[in-house]
Every structure is written in structure tokens, then in C-alpha cells.
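Lecture notes, part 5. Sequence design as translation. It can be helpful to think of inverse folding as translation between two languages: the language of shapes and the language of residues. The source text, in C-alpha cells, appears below.
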């Protein structure tokens, strides 16, 4: 990985600049071990939202629009929890 990286950044500097996907493709970041769980969960969450939400929305749009805000929040929390656990179990 180090051989393929064109740049190297410390974690604190890297997160401070909020780089775009284009800017990070050739960057190796020194990730402290204590930050790994948060970074991993954050990355998985963002990836799931980007990849899965459009499908959930297109399949269930009308049903979801009819729900109250509280019921919708509970449904989205339930769905997110399900997908998170499922993704975790598939990764081990």
C-alpha cells in the first residue's frame, strides 16, 4: 500500500481537510488503532446509505411517505440496524 500511495498524511491532518474521493485515492493515512472502530463504522454507514437507500426508497416510497414522522424514524432505525448487523455478519 505504501508503495502505491503518492502521498502520506497523519490522521488528524487528513480528517481536518475533509478530502474528496478524488483527493484520497492515492493517499495513505496513518490511522491510529483507537480510531479504527469509529472510522470503520462511519465508512460502512456511508457506503450503505449511498448504495442501499436508493433501492429502499424506490421500492417503498409510497408506503414510507404515508407514515408519521415517528413511525418513519422507527422504520428507518429498524432498517438501518438490520442492514448494519447483516453487513457485519457477512464480513466475518
Amino acid at each position: 500500500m505504501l508503495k502505491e500511495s503518492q502521498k502520506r498524511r497523519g490522521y488528524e491532518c487528513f480528517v481536518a481537510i475533509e478530502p474528496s474521493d478524488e483527493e484520497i485515492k492515492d493517499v495513505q493515512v496513518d490511522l491510529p488503532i483507537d480510531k479504527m472502530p469509529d472510522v470503520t463504522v462511519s465508512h460502512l454507514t456511508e457506503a450503505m446509505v449511498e448504495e442501499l437507500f436508493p433501492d429502499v426508497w424506490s421500492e417503498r416510497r409510497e408506503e414510507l411517505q404515508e407514515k408519521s414522522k415517528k413511525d418513519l424514524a422507527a422504520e428507518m432505525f429498524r432498517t438501518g440496524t438490520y442492514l448494519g448487523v447483516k453487513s457485519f455478519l457477512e464480513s466475518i
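The translated text above is only one of many valid answers, since several sequences can fold into similar shapes. Residues 29 and 66 are 44 Å apart (CA to CA).
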